[in-house]
Every structure is written in C-alpha cells, then in structure tokens.
Amino acid sequence: MIIGELSARSGVSPRLLRYYEEQGLVTATRAANGYRQYDESAVTTARIVRMMFQMGFPQDKVRAVLACAGDGAAEADHDAARVSVAQMRDDIDQQMQQLAATREVLTDFLERR
After folding, report:
1. What are phi and psi of 29, to 5 degrees?
2. pTM value?
3. Which of 27, 61, 62, 100 lies at a 20 to 30 A Cα distance from 89?
4. Residues 1, 38: contact at Cβ < 8 Å?
5. HSE of 15 in the Cβ direction (CA atoms, 13 Å)?
C-alpha cells in the first residue's frame, strides 16, 4: 500500500509516517516509480508508534516494544520489551495517581467557592 492508504487506514498523517520511517520505526520499500510501499503490518505498527508517542514514551521504549513484536525476535528482545512495558505501566499508574490527586484538589476548591 502507498503512504496515503496507510495514512487513511492507520489514522497517522503522511508527515508522521515519513518521520517514523526516517527514525526506523516503520519500514517501507520503494516501488519503481519511487513511491513508498508498506506491507499490511505497517498499519498496526504505525498505530502503536503513534499511541506510544502520544502517551509520552521515549523512542528507546518504543523501539524495545517494536523489536519484540516482529517475527523471529530474540529472547533478549522479549526480555527488554517486558522490562520496558512494565516500566511504561508503572509510569501510567504514577500519572493516574497524580491526576487523581490534582482532581481532588480542584474538586475541593470548587466546593469551597
């Protein structure tokens, strides 16, 4: 599929897809006409990459998860991904606790006014 179709199916803009490719997070081949060609798995990969970046995760953690997602990934890749995903989960838990505390302060403020 070409970049426009990948963009439509993944919800990721062509500009971001080109950036992800530049960073080695999404792969493409080139057709004879020079157009980028993506395989079916690029749809899921692009969605995962976008979601992780939107959540604020750094590129090294995104890479660790993607390394584990491919066929034939080494056990070391799986171990590294497990560690990264566990850390991401813990980071999300901490963010949720901070947001809940902030919400409580705001609610208290509104109730006093």
Report:
1. -105, 170
2. 0.70
3. 27
4. yes
5. 0
From the candidate CATH numbers 3.40.640.10, 1.10.1660.10, 1.10.940.10, 3.20.20.80, the one assigned to the domain spanning 1-54 = 1.10.1660.10
Q: Where are the beta strands (DSSP E) in the chain?
A: 29-30, 36-37
Are the C-beta atoms of residues 27 and 42 closer than 8 Å to each other? yes
User: What are the CA-CA distances from residue 31 to residues 6, 19, 40, 55 (Å)?
Assistant: 15, 19, 16, 33
Structural domain boundaries of the chain?
1-54, 57-113
Cα distance between residue 62 and residue 73, in whole Å: 15
For 2-24, the pLDDT digits (tens) are 999 999 999 999 999 999 999 99
Residues 6+ apart with CB under 8 A from 77: 64, 67, 68
- Tokens 């081949």 -> residue: 29
